[in-house]
Predict the structure.
Amino acid sequence: MKKLSFYLAIILVMALSSCFKKSETKSLYPRFSEDPNSHSIFGQLVRLKSGFIVERKDSLYYLGDIVLSSAQLNALDEYGTFFPKRPSYIGPDTSVHPVYNIPMQMVQKNLAIPRAFSQYPTPYNMWAMVRFTYNPNLPFWLKEEIRSVLYQMQAVSNVRFYNATGQPTIDPTYGFPYPYIDFYYIGAASTSNSRVGRVGGMQRINLANFVIYQPNAIVHEICHALGMFHEMERVDRDNYININWTNLKPVFALQFQKITSNYYQLGPYDFNSVTGYDSRGYDTTAVNDRGQYAYIKKSDGSDIYQGLELSDFDRRWINTFYIPFIARSDIYAELDSIVYKGDNTRMSLAERLSLQVTLNKGIPDIPPIGRIPNNF
């Protein structure tokens, strides 16, 4: 959404469910209301079996600016959560190759390992490095904004991006699609949107014109792709905020539905997060009265403002789940010169080298060749 801020850290667990079939939409997902006046002007609101409400538009399903994968939609329908069970492991995924985000054994042994490349049977669907492409339709100004945001995020956190623009998107040996983000321009739209986490194959971050004066909206959408949800969906949010439900249009209210199970939450409610929303400033597609707030702080009734950059707790979440890899063509896990701990302090040289040796199963020496260019 235009007015986005972000933070709720929810772990993305693998959903072992079948693909959603168009022919099942009417029986599986009945209409939220038969009254056309209650539908979003963008699409149709649909109540799932779990009671969760989503928006159906152009054969896709949305929670505001979050585009649901088929597996996520099915899990949300059946369980009321994005994934059927809580992960058993908390921390970065080191089982996939940083550049390709495919199983490390596949690269090491040159073997085709049976593994779903639309969803991953890992504890949660995170990236190693975030492989991305600039879509040819991006105007120059937007490409420059994205580039600036990527460097900014790398400078203050462990997340690393790999520019795969112009490179193969399909594995030349086995024919499966590499997981990657395609930054795409959608012009004069009122919302930008993204998938949540690594869903497999190509997944788009759709960016609208307004990000030229709200570059934090780009950060917001990237953070969704990293695995983060909106701060106001936290299970404990009612202790911190008052929501003006009567002022929210149904399509906007979707983004205030609580996530009550299978989530990872870090710290208290973060009013500075890039994934919360502003209290005010929405158009009439989102609220009934533009002069009224959407939600405010419970403690003193003051307004909430979207973070302009990653907050301290945003960074803590990213630094808990990501490791700053350097792009290599081999299987050696080389770390960047700065590695952050989960509390945002930097590892010492000894700590960083120890982690690197551990990741490489005791091998201390970095191969002299193997690094590959990675310019944004």
